[in-house]
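Objective 1b of the project was to move from sequence-level analysis to a structural picture of ligand recognition. The entry below was assembled by the postdoctoral researcher (A.K.) and checked by the PI before modelling. It contains the amino acid sequence of the target and the SMILES of the bound compound, S-adenosylmethionine.
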Amino acid sequence: MGQGMSGFASDLTHATYESPDIVALYARPDGLQKPEETLLSQLRPSLGAMDMLDIGVGGGRTTRHFAPLARSYLGVDYSAGMIARCKAEFPAFSFAVADARRLASVADESFDFVLFSYNGIDHLDSRERTMALTEMKRALRPGGLMVFSSHNANYLPAIIDRFRFRIHGNLRETLRSLKWSGVFWGKNGLLQYRMPLAAGRVHDGTHSFRSSALYYVRPDIGVAELRRLGMIDIVCAGNESRDFVPGDDPRLAQDPNPWIYYASRKPERI
Ligand SMILES: C[S@@+](CC[C@H](N)C(=O)[O-])C[C@H]1O[C@@H](n2cnc3c(N)ncnc32)[C@H](O)[C@@H]1O
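Corresponding predicted holo structure:
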């Protein structure tokens, strides 16, 4: 298998994020998700003293809101197409091509706030995810803030239901349902035997199956991953909620939101 720019085997997902239609897709949305709005309003008074690293910046959806307020801002993405788009759209801010699994150009402890929004981290398998989280922690100064979102394994029954074969009133819709149900089960053959899934990779139809499988994790397991990494002050919010709750809230294990925002801090140096 060929090697990508990062030194990792090039994969289907990277090729998809380089394609012009997907670059254009992510250049369009400009609104913040509800937990991001909460985060921005809480950080607003202090962002002016914070250096921010925005990983998987895509078309710059978050740049628009955070970059003008931060002391410094660097957006990175492993898609050169996304970075070219951001440079053209936001010439006042810095952008670079970089892979979250190995942020070679990022010095240790050089940022106060590291963001990896909109589930970009879920394209990585479990080992690579740990690599990315470790890199994010390395890039943070002591006391720094790490925020990312990740697909929620509790939402998988809804995904499975979406791809259930259904007979519709017209033949075209019925054939369409047959096709996508076939593709879904062709790619996720053993999924029904893995349910309920605590953490694992699923082909969920993102980009019409032009991406590799995405990592889904139950929120309490996601919190445990962060604890193992040594992160503290962990709080979580479902993507449809504005309120973050402590990572040890027992309700998290059943949270039904499609994806979850995780915010945590790197401990201060003792
Ligand atoms: C779902 S898009 C989100 C884009 C943007 N953050 C937003 O919220 O609109 C995920 C982004 O993460 C990037 N990405 C995925 N894996 C990456 C990796 N290993 N390193 C850097 N960027 C990555 C993709 O190229 C894509 O731009």
